């Protein structure tokens, strides 16, 4: 078995600003807690006001006057590829740090999240060289040339959540850099370790000072300063909807670009004509991956009346196959990890209580694990049946391994239930009727829909967007860019139409 602690530094991890590893003026640190046992295993320095100012100044200077802006897309692309190679060499170390910090399964971190992180740099290195614009045939009798080009936004603040900081961080940072921006990354205080470790690769590879800055600290101070600063051109948040709302408000004075990837409460509609066993397996995967801490989790399963009882029996049976524990104990068959923190575990338990008190039927789970694992934040997969749309657990994002099952008779009823929440991040439909599959997928109000499967098959190639309260902004590299439309007069003898 791998010893992940061999990769952990004894000294606190420093911030990375302007190409230097920085100890904040305050000297304050934060403990890095392993969610498996709630023990601290490392420390990271905590950024404050001074460091935010320093990071903004560095990113601004690197964008406005530094070598980054003068580099060609090809040169930037080559740096991204160099980064990819170094990240690939250190993938075991980074998978260990990420899995320790977030309580993830080591195998899924090493075999899925790391390859995805590495691939993002490869993909966007290619994209950096394909940022084509277009020529638009405007009406002008051939006298006018009009073309549209894409330009970087400038200094981008990327604010990250804790549920997959490395993979999400890599996907965002590579796109931001490929677009030609400079970046200030602020990871979540609950999961900063892997991003701080990543700084040494940016340094080694030779990104010019100030192009990438990584700064820790609270959302209410560090995040808020980034959002309010006039010298930050764009804020991109991946986080909860409430945080997104605050950012909309606090960015108002500086009228900057904002892109928000927010929470979800995604429906998964199962029609009676499916292969029940297969649909159950996908439904299970849809709400239990990463212990339910995935924004696009399929947390509302909407099942047709005639298969409703059988579906619940089968799903319940499958839930018994999970072995909870330390994600590094894969040789002992552990395939389900803890929730990120005690605090978050309590939030999830409160939702479970609410579900019970509002009359939902608890089929399985619903409790924090006792015994050997009682020091960790373990809640086994929890199924609620007979959930109706007025219940809190149907409406609100729980962000844990809790699924709500509701019954429908007709297609219209299923669609109404699916769309009956404020979120619109993802959704799925299972049916063997090809027409119905597409018809229902088209009616689900969400930025990402799966038919007879669950989860994205190409996060960078075909990124989703959040509809309704699940987000703002376009997907992919253009999220971090401005378009410019340019008109050229081709005829020397044309006067203005006065
Ligand atoms: P969160 O909103 O609590 O925090 C996200 C980040 O925002 C953190 O770095 C935090 O410090 C910062 N922040 C908090 N308040 C801020 C403020 N006032 N100004 C600026 N920054 C502030 O979210 P979380 O608990 O870390 O992550 C879980 C949430 O993220 C869930 O709702 C989940 O659905 C969502 N999420 C969405 C996506 C997506 O692609 N749509 C992906 C992953 C996670």
Task: Describe the secondary-structure layout.
Blueprint: E1 15-17, E2 20-22, E3 29-34, E4 39-45, H1 49-64, H2 67-70, H3 73-89, H4 91-102, H5 106-128, E5 134-135, E6 144-152, E7 155-159, H6 165-178, E8 182-186, H7 193-205, E9 212-214, H8 219-228, E10 234-238, H9 241-250, E11 257-261, E12 267-270, H10 276-288, E13 300-304, H11 308-319, H12 342-357, E14 361-364, E15 382-385, H13 392-395, E16 402-408, H14 411-418, E17 423-424, E18 427-430, H15 434-443, E19 449-451, E20 467-468, E21 471-472, E22 481-489
Parallel strand pairs: 7-8, 7-10, 8-9, 10-11, 12-13, 12-18, 13-16, 15-16, 18-19
Antiparallel strand pairs: 1-2, 3-4, 5-6, 6-22, 11-21, 14-15, 17-20
Residues 159-163, 186, 188-189, 219-220, 223-224, 227, 237-240, 243, 246-247, 261-264, 295, 397, 399, 425, 466, 471 line the site of nicotinamide-adenine-dinucleotide (NAD).
Q: Using the CA coordinates, give the radius of gyration.
A: 24 Å
What oligomeric assembly is this protein in?
single chain
List bound small molecules. Answer: nicotinamide-adenine-dinucleotide
Count of helical segments?
A: 15
Distance between the termini: 80 Å
Provide the number of structural domains: 2
Q: In CATH, what is the homologous superfamily of the largest domain?
A: Aldehyde Dehydrogenase, Chain A, domain 1
Estimate the global geometry from the Cα principal axes.
Answer: globular
Strand order in the sheet with the most strands: 14-15-16-13-12-18-19
């Amino acid at each position: 078995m791998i010893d992940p602690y061999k990769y952990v530094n004894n000294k606190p991890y420093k911030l990375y600003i302007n190409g230097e590893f920085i100890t904040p003026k305050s000297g304050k640190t934060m403990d890095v807690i392993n969610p498996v046992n709630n023990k601290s295993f490392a420390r990271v320095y905590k950024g404050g006001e001074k460091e935010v100012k320093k990071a903004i100044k560095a990113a601004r200077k690197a964008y406005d006057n530094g070598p980054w802006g003068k580099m060609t897309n090809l040169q930037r692309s080559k740096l991204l590829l160099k980064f990819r190679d170094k990240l690939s060499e250190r993938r075991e170390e980074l998978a260990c740090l990420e899995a320790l910090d977030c309580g993830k399964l080591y195998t899924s971190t090493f075999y899925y999240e790391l390859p995805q992180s590495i691939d993002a740099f490869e993909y966007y290195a290619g994209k950096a060289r394909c940022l084509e614009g277009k020529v638009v045939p405007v009406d002008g009798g051939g006298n006018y040339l009009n073309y549209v080009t894409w330009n970087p936004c400038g200094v981008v603040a990327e604010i990250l959540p804790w549920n997959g900081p490395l993979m999400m961080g890599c996907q965002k940072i590579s796109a931001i850099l490929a677009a030609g921006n400079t970046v200030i990354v602020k990871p979540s205080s609950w999961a900063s370790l892997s991003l701080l470790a990543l700084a040494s690769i940016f340094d080694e590879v030779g990104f010019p000072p100030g192009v990438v800055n990584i700064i820790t600290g609270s959302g209410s101070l560090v995040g808020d300063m980034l959002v309010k600063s006039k010298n930050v051109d764009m804020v991109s948040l991946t986080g909860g909807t409430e945080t997104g709302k605050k950012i909309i408000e606090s960015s108002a004075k500086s009228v900057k670009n904002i892109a928000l990837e927010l929470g979800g409460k995604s429906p998964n509609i199962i029609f009676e004509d499916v292969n029940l066993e297969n649909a159950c397996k996908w439904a299970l995967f849809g709400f239990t991956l990463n212990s339910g801490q995935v924004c696009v989790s399929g947390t509302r399963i909407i099942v047709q009346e005639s298969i409703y009882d059988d579906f619940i029996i089968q799903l319940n049976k499958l839930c018994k196959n999970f072995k909870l524990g330390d994600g590094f104990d894969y040789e002992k068959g552990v395939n389900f990890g803890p929730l990120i923190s005690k605090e978050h575990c309590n939030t999830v338990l409160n939702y479970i209580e609410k579900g019970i008190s509002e009359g939902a039927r608890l089929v399985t789970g619903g409790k924090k694990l006792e015994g050997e694992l009682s020091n960790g934040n373990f809640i086994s997969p929890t199924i609620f049946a007979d959930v109706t749309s007025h219940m809190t657990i149907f409406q609100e994002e729980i962000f844990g391994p809790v699924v709500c099952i509701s019954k429908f008779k007709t297609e219209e009823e299923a669609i109404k239930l699916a769309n009956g929440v404020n979120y619109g991040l993802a959704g799925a439909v299972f049916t063997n009727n090809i027409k119905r599959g597409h018809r229902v997928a088209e009616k689900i109000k969400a930025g990402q829909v799966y038919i007879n499967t669950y989860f994205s098959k190409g996060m960078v190639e075909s990124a989703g967007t959040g509809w309704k309260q699940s987000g703002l902004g376009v997907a992919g590299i253009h999220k971090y860019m401005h378009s410019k439309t340019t008109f050229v007069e081709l005829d020397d003898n044309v006067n203005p139409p006065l």
